[in-house]
Amino acid sequence: MSLESVRAWLSEHAPDLPIIEVEESTATVHLAAEALGVEPGRIAKTLAVRVGSENFLLVARGDARLDNGKCKAEFGGRPRMLGPEEALALTGHPVGGVCPFGLAQPLPVYCDASLQAFDTVFPAAGSLNSSVRVSPERLASLVSRRWVNVCRLPDGETRTEADSA
Questions:
Q1: pLDDT on residue 13
Q2: DSSP string of 15-47?
């Protein structure tokens, strides 16, 4: 029922954002990009992370990688990705559908600055074949505590490059 919790959350907080459901799986960045017809960077992956005793979600562009040093500097410890069962228990969403909407329990959500390279991004919507189209600024205003800079971009890219679309 994860998709339903996202649907209910969006109807209350952002009724103008429709859920995009596709036949194909969107469970990985590559599959989501292919199914939605966009570049992998536009997929807003949501990572379930623990630093010390704090669990939180980090939303980053699909082709960015978590940088342990930046994460340690920002959050005061080494990040650890939560396992599938733990992520499901905390978020209510299966891995591949984890998103910052309609969470099973309140969690801090941070948006990585890597998302700001795009005018629109596509976070999952609680299932393995759903997503939402939203601007990074709107996404952050809906779910995020604050912007952080804890990811590395693909080789050769900078955070100031113009949006390619």
A1: 97
A2: TT-PEEE-SS--SSHHHHHHHHTS-GGGEEEEE
